[in-house]
C-alpha cells in the first residue's frame, strides 16, 4: 500500500498567508487542503490555493543556468556573475549595480539579498515589487507610529461592529479574509460593512453601504470623517492627550472639510456619506481595512495617514475589533519589510538615515562598506537602468516587463543594460527575453523558509518536492555569488535555518532604548537560538517574539506606546489631492488590478486550466452608458491608447463601473496575446514619499475595433 504523508506549508499567493496541508505520495503532490490549525484560514482555501497541486509540474521550468542562451554549470555561472559585478563596481562604483526582488521570495532569500547589496556591495539599490503593493502603507505607518507596524489582526474584522473596506476588493484579492468577514456578518447581521470603492465589486455583496466615490478622492473622504468626529466631539480625549501629538494642526486642516464639501469633492450623496460618518462615530469597534486602491496613488501615504488619524483621535486602535488595517498583496511583502528589502530601509525595521542604526548593522554584519544612504526605488531604479547610470541589474522572482508601470519602458531599459541577470523558476517570462544570465531557482513546494502575512504572522513554507534540473534556492544562489565575490565568511550559510537565526538575532540586536523599552517594534530575538528541528517544526506565530512576548502579540498600541521619539503617535495634517492626471473630455480613467482566479503575471496560475474558467481572456470593464455612447458592444474587441501605447481586449459591459472609469486585469502578458500588458498604459507617476506608482488612475482613450 502506498503511504501518504501530509506536510504543513503556506500558500504562495496573497498576503492572507493561508496554511496548506500538502498530501504527498511517492514524492508527488497529490492534493492540497486548508490547514485547520492555521489561524489565518482555519481550514479554508480559496480557488487559487485549492489549485496549487495543478501548478507544480516541471513543464516550463528553467532547468540549467545559462549565459547568453548557452547552458553552463553553476560554477561557471557564479564566476561569470561575480566577475562581471565586481568589474562594474570597480569601474563605476557600487551604485552602478542594482537588485530588483519580489514579495514572492522567502524571508531567508530576502535577508541574504539585502545583506549582499547593502552590507557588502555597499549600495542600497535593492528594491522589490512590494514597492508597487504596499510601500505607501509602510510610509504612513512610520509617519504615524514611528514604526512600520500593523496594529491589529484578522480576528479584529470578526469582532468589529463596523468594517470599512476602502480601496480593497477583499472578496477577490484576499478571499479567505473576506470569507471570515462574511461568516461574521452572517452570524451577527447587525454588524455593518461599508465598501468605499469607485467600482461595485464582489465585496459589495455583503455590504450595508457602498460609496462609489470619485476615483482618487479618498483623502477628502477621510479628512471629512476627521472633521465630523471633531465637530461632533466624538473623540477619545484621554487617548489624544496622553498618546497623540499634532491634534491642533489636524483639527485646523480639516476645518473646511464639511459634509457638504466632502460629498462634492468625492461625488457622493451627502446622506450616504453621513451614514458612514455616524456609524464610525457610534461604533467603538471599527476596523478600516485598506489596500491597493489607497496605496497605489500619487498621494497614497497621505491617504493612509488620513485613515489612521481617524482611528487615533477616536481611540479605535490596539483594541479587539478596533484598528486601521493595511492588508498586503503578496505572500511575503511583510517579510521583505522586516529584512529591509526596500531601497529606503536598512534591516530589521532599522532606518538607513539613522546613524545609530547604521553603526549597529555595520557591527552586526561586520560590514565596513555598508551602504550609507537610501537607494533607488523601483520606478527610479529602472529609469537609472534606462539612462545607463545602473549598468547591471539582478532581477529575482518577478516579471517587471509586465508588472511595472510604463512597462514598455522597462523593455527598452533592459535591452540597453550591460548586464541583466534573472533568477526565476520559469523558463519563459517576458523579462527573461532580456537576460544575459539566467539562473534557475526553486519555487513553492521545493523551497524551505518563512513568510509573514498581513497580520504579522510568520509561517513556514516547507519543501516536499525535488527541484527539477539544476534549480537551487535563491538564498543559496545569492550566497554562492557573494562568496565568489570574495565575501566568504559573511555568507557561509548551510541551510535556510542558519539564515533565519541570523535574521532573528539581528532583529533583537541592541534593541533596548533608554527607558528599557524595545526601540524597534520588529523583534523576533526569541527565535534566534532555535535548533534546526525547532525551525522545521515552527508553528505560525505573530511577531514580536521576544522576552516580553514569547508567544507573539496579537495587537500593538493597546499600551499607548508608540515608536516615535516622544513615544506618542503623530497625527498627520494632510492636504488631500486628486490624482496627478485628470482625464480629458475624450478620455476615461483606467484602473488596473487583480481578478479572482489569477495571480500576478500568471506564470504559476496560468498552468491551472480551471483557473481560466472564471475569466479566460483579457477584458475591459466598461459601464453600459459609456459603452452605448461610444458604440461599443459587449464581447467585441476594444483598443485602449495613451502616449502611442495600445492595449487590446474584449469589452465586458458592466454596471459595476462608474461612467468615467474602466477596469482592466493586470495579469496577462504578451506570452498570452499581443497588446495584452495592461500596465504598459500606466503612467510612471509615483507618490513622492513612498515611491509607489499610481496604478489606479491613468487617462486613456477607448475605441471599438
Ligand atoms: Fe492563498 Fe490568499 Fe487564497 Fe489564502 S486567500 S488560499 S493565501 S490565495
Automatic annotation (TrEMBL):
Keywords from the named record: 4Fe-4S, Iron, Iron-sulfur, Metal-binding, Molybdenum, Nitrate assimilation, Oxidoreductase
Keyword Acetylation attached: no
UniProt entry tagged with the keyword Iron: yes
Gene Ontology CC terms, in alphabetical order: membrane; oxidoreductase complex
GO biological process: cellular respiration; nitrate assimilation
Obligatory cofactor(s): [4Fe-4S] cluster; Mo-bis(molybdopterin guanine dinucleotide)
Domain 4Fe-4S Mo/W bis-MGD-type: 4-60
GO MF term (any one): metal ion binding
Coiled coil: none
Domain of life assignment: Bacteria
Family statement: Belongs to the prokaryotic molybdopterin-containing oxidoreductase family. NasA/NapA/NarB subfamily.
Name the UniProt record assigns to this protein: Assimilatory nitrate reductase catalytic subunit
Amino acid at each position: 500500500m502506498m503511504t501518504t504523508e501530509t506536510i504543513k506549508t503556506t500558500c504562495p499567493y496573497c498576503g492572507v498567508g493561508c496554511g496548506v496541508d500538502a498530501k504527498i505520495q511517492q514524492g508527488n503532490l497529490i492534493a492540497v487542503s486548508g490547514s485547520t490549525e492555521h489561524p489565518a484560514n482555519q481550514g479554508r482555501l480559496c480557488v487559487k490555493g485549492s489549485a496549487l497541486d495543478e501548478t507544480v509540474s516541471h513543464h516550463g521550468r528553467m532547468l540549467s543556468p545559462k549565459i547568453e542562451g548557452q547552458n553552463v554549470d553553476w560554477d561557471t555561472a557564479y564566476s561569470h556573475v561575480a566577475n562581471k559585478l565586481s568589474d562594474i563596481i570597480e569601474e563605476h562604483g557600487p551604485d552602478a549595480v542594482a537588485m530588483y526582488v519580489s514579495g514572492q521570495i522567502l524571508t531567508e532569500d530576502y535577508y541574504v539579498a539585502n545583506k549582499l547589496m547593502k552590507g557588502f556591495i555597499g549600495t542600497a539599490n535593492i528594491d522589490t515589487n512590494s514597492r508597487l503593493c504596499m510601500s505607501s502603507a509602510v510610509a504612513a505607518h512610520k509617519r504615524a507610529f514611528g514604526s512600520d507596524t500593523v496594529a491589529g489582526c484578522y480576528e479584529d474584522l470578526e469582532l468589529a461592529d463596523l468594517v470599512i473596506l476602502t480601496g480593497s476588493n477583499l472578496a477577490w484579492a484576499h478571499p479567505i479574509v473576506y470569507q471570515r468577514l462574511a461568516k461574521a456578518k452572517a452570524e451577527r447581521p447587525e454588524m455593518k460593512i461599508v465598501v468605499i470603492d469607485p467600482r461595485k465589486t464582489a465585496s459589495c455583496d455583503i455590504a450595508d453601504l457602498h460609496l462609489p466615490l470619485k476615483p482618487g478622492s479618498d483623502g477628502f473622504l477621510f479628512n471629512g470623517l476627521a472633521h465630523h468626529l471633531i465637530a461632533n466631539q466624538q473623540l477619545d480625549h484621554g487617548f489624544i492627550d496622553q498618546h497623540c501629538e499634532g491634534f491642533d494642526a489636524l483639527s485646523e486642516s480639516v476645518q473646511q472639510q464639511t459634509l457638504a464639501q466632502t460629498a462634492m469633492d468625492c461625488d457622493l450623496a451627502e446622506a450616504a456619506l453621513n451614514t458612514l460618518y455616524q456609524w464610525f462615530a457610534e461604533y467603538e469597534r471599527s476596523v478600516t481595512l485598506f489596500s491597493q486602491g489607497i496605496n497605489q496613488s500619487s498621494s497614497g501615504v497621505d491617504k493612509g495617514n488620513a485613515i489612521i488619524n481617524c482611528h487615533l483621535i477616536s481611540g479605535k486602535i490596539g483594541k479587539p475589533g478596533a484598528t486601521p488595517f493595511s492588508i498586503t498583496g503578496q505572500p511575503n511583502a511583510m517579510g521583505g519589510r522586516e529584512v529591509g528589502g526596500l531601497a529606503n530601509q536598512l534591516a530589521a525595521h532599522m532606518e538607513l538615515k539613522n546613524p545609530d542604526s547604521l553603526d549597529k548593522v555595520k557591527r552586526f554584519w561586520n560590514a565596513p562598506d555598508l551602504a550609507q544612504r537610501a537607494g533607488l526605488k523601483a520606478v527610479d531604479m529602472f529609469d537609472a537602468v534606462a539612462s545607463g547610470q545602473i549598468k547591471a541589474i539582478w532581477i529575482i522572482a518577478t516579471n517587471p516587463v509586465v508588472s511595472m508601470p510604463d512597462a514598455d519602458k522597462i523593455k527598452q531599459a533592459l535591452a540597453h543594460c550591460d548586464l541583466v541577470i534573472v533568477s526565476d523558476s520559469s523558463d519563459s517570462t517576458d523579462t527573461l527575453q532580456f537576460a544575459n544570465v539566467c539562473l534557475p531557482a526553486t519555487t513553492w513546494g521545493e523551497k524551505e523558509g518563512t513568510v509573514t502575512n498581513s497580520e504579522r504572522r510568520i509561517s513556514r513554507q516547507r519543501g516536499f518536492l525535488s527541484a527539477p534540473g539544476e534549480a537551487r534556492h535563491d538564498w543559496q544562489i545569492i550566497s554562492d555569488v557573494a562568496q565568489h565575490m570574495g565575501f566568504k565568511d559573511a555568507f557561509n550559510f548551510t541551510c535556510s535555518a542558519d539564515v533565519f537565526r541570523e535574521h532573528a538575532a539581528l532583529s533583537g540586536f541592541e534593541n533596548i532604548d533608554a527607558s528599557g523599552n524595545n526601540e524597534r517594534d520588529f523583534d523576533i530575538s526569541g527565535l534566534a537560538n532555535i535548533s534546526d528541528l525547532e525551525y522545521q517544526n515552527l508553528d505560525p506565530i505573530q511577531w514580536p517574539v521576544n522576552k516580553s512576548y514569547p508567544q507573539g502579540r496579537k495587537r500593538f498600541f493597546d499600551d499607548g506606546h508608540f515608536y516615535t521619539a516622544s513615544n506618542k503617535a503623530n497625527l498627520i495634517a494632510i492636504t488631500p489631492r486628486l490624482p496627478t492626471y485628470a482625464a480629458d473630455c475624450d478620455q476615461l480613467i483606467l484602473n488596473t488590478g487583480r481578478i479572482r482566479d489569477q495571480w500576478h503575471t500568471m506564470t504559476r496560475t496560468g498552468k491551472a486550466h480551471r483557473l481560466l474558467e472564471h475569466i479566460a481572456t483579457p477584458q475591459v470593464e466598461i459601464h453600459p452608458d459609456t459603452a452605448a455612447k461610444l458604440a461599443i458592444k459587449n464581447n467585441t474587441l476594444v483598443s485602449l491608447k495613451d502616449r502611442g501605447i495600445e492595449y487590446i481586449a474584449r469589452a465586458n459591459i458592466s454596471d459595476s463601473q462608474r461612467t468615467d472609469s474602466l477596469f482592466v486585469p493586470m495579469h496577462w502578458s504578451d506570452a498570452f496575446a499581443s497588446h495584452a500588458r495592461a500596465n504598459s498604459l500606466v503612467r510612471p507617476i509615483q507618490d513622492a514619499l513612498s515611491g509607489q506608482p499610481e496604478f489606479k488612475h491613468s487617462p486613456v482613450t477607448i475605441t471599438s475595433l
